[in-house]
Amino acid sequence: MFLSFIIPAYNEERYIERCIRSIQSNVDGVYDYEIILVDNASTDRTATIAASLGVTVLSKEHKYTISAVRNFGVEASKGDILLFIDGDVYLHDSWIDNVPPVLERLQKEDWLAGSVYAVDPDASWIPHVWFQPWFDKQEKVTFINGGHLLMTRELFDRIGGFDESMETGEDHEICERAKQAGATVSNLPELIAVHLGYPNSLGHFFRRERWHGKGNFSPISRIFASKIPLFVLMILASFLFSIIAPIVTGNLWFLLVYPAFAGAASAAAAFKWLGGFKKTFLPCMFLSWLYFTARTFSIWEVMKESMMGSKKAKTS
Hints:
Blueprint lengths: L1 E8 L6 H12 L4 E9 L5 H7 L3 E5 L5 H11 L4 E5 L3 E3 L3 H4 L1 H9 L2 E4 L3 E2 L5 H6 L1 H5 L11 E5 H7 L10 H11 L3 E4 L5 E3 L6 H15 L11 H22 L7 H18 L6 H35 L1
Parallel strand pairs: 1-2, 1-4, 2-3, 6-9, 7-10
Antiparallel strand pairs: 4-8, 5-10, 6-8
C-alpha cells in the first residue's frame, strides 16, 4: 500500500508547514508515502517552505481551479490510495491511530471517505459559532470536503477525477458522481482534520460564503436544488419591497418589512442550525443573516455570468 497526499496550495505561507509536518508526524515509519504539493501560482513563500520540508513541489505559472490543481497532482503521483489535504488543514495526532481500517476498507470496496473539518481551538468566535455545529452533527453529512478526502486511484480514474470547470463545489459534485458509480460516501468523525482557514473576521466570512455560493448555484440549472435560494430570493424581495413600497404609497411602516422578514428567516435558520435556543443563538442569527446576504450576491453573479454566456453564444 502506497499513499499519495495531494496538497493544492495558493498563498498558504501561514499554514503550509503545519499541514506538511502533521502528515509526516502521523505517517512516518507507518506507511510508504509521498507528499505532492501543487503550487497554484502563489505569490508568497508557500513553495519554498514546502520544498524545504522535503516534499515534491509542482508549480503552476497561472492560477487554475482547485479541481484542475488536484487532478494535476494525481497525474504526477504514484500511490494506489489518494489523500487530498488542503494547505490550510492539518491532521490531528490521533489520525494515524484511526486510519488503518479505513485504508484497508478502501482497498476492498468502492468507498470515498473523509471527515468534516474540526475548528482550531485558537480560532475567533466566528468558526466556533458557525462551523462547530457542523462538526458536531457529522452523522448528517452527505458529502466529503475536498480538503480531507480519501479514495483509491482506481475509483478516482473511473469517475473521471474532479470537474475542472467548477470554481467551487467540486467536492460535493465528485461525491455525487462517486455515488452514481456505486460507491459509498462516508464521513468519519474519528479521522480528525483541523481547518486553520476558517474565516476569523466578518469580511472573510462574507467573501467565503459569497464564493462558495457561486459553486452551489452553478450551473444555473442547479440554483433551486436546495431551499437556500428560495429563502435568499424571499429576503431579497422583502428588501426591494421595503424600498419601493414607502416611495409608492408614502407609508413608512413598509420600511419594517425587510428587517422583520430577514430577522425571522435568520432566527429560524439559527434555530435549525444549532438545534434549538443556545447561548450562541444571537451571534448565530447574525451570521445567518450575513450568510443569506452573501448568497444573494452569489445568485446574482451566477445569473449575470449565465446571461453573459448566452449573449456570447448568440453573437459567436
